[in-house]
Amino acid sequence: MLSTSRKTCAAVQIFAVSFIMLGSSIPLIIATLKTTIHIIRFLLRLTAFLLALVFVLPFVILGILLAKLFHNHPVNEFLLVYWSRLLCFICGLKVYVHGIKPEAPVFLVANHVSWLDIPVIHSLMRAGFVAKSEIKYWPIVGWITMVGDTLFLKRGNAESRKGVISQIKKRLSAGRSVAVFPEGTVTDGSYLRTFHRQLIHAAIETQTPILPVAIKFINANGSRNDKVGFLNNEFFLGSVWRILTLPNSTVEVHCGGLVTDFDLGARAVTLQARAYIEQELLRNDYMPAPNQA
Hints:
CATH architecture: 3-Layer(aba) Sandwich
Largest sheet: 7 strands, mixed
Distance between the termini: 82 Å
Radius of gyration: 25 Å
CATH class: Alpha Beta
Oligomer: single chain
Strand content: 5-15%
Number of domains: 1
Mean pLDDT: 88
C-alpha cells in the first residue's frame, strides 16, 4: 500500500513538473509560431513581388505605351488601375474607399505619408501625378510614373513650376484628372502640414472640381500604421523590403465633396480641401491632435 502511494505521489509530481514546464514553454512556442508565420509571409510576398516585376510589369508598361499610341484611354486606365491593385495586394494592403468617386476630370489633393500613396490612389482611378523629379530615377515606381502621365517638378525651380502648371491646365482642359500632394513632402502621418496652393491655381483657372482625399493606413487593432512611411531617411528599396515584412494593413481612402468655390480664390479652396482631410484624419484618434507644421 505504501509503495503504491509513493508511486502515485511520484506520478503526480512528474505530471505537475511537466505541466509547469509546458506552461513556461507556451510563450516560447507562440513566439516561434509568430516568427515562422512572419518569415513565410515575407517569402511569399517577396516571391510574388519579384514575379510581378518580371512577368507582369513589362506587359503593363508595354500595354500603357500602346494605349497611349492609339489614344485608347480605357485600356490605359484599366492597366494602371489593376497593376496598382496587384501591387497593393502584394504589399499586404486592403483598400477601402469611402465616399463617391467622381467622374474625370478632377484635381485630386491628398495627404502624403508613403510611396504607397501613389498605387493606392491609382487603384481607385487614373490620375496624372505631379511628383518631384527625383522619383523618375526610382526603380519600379519611377518606371510606372514615367509612363503613367506623371509631371516631374524640380523643387525650388520657378521655371519648372510654371511649366508644370501649364501642363496641368492642358490636361485638365482635355478631361484628364491630375493628383498632387500639396504638403510637398511626406510626413509620419501624425500631423498634417500646410498645403501649398501654387498648383491649385491650375484647377481654378480651368474651373476643374477639386477632390480632397484623406488616406489612412490602419493596423489590425485600429491604430494608425506608422511603419509604412520612410523611416530614418531610408532609401526607396529599403522601404520596399521593410514593407514586405509588415503585417497586413487596411487603407481607408476617404473622398470628400468636390470643392468648386473658385470665386473665393486659391487660398480659400486650398483651406477647404485641407480642412476636410484634417477632419478625416482626426476621426477616431487616427491623428493625435491638430498640429500644423
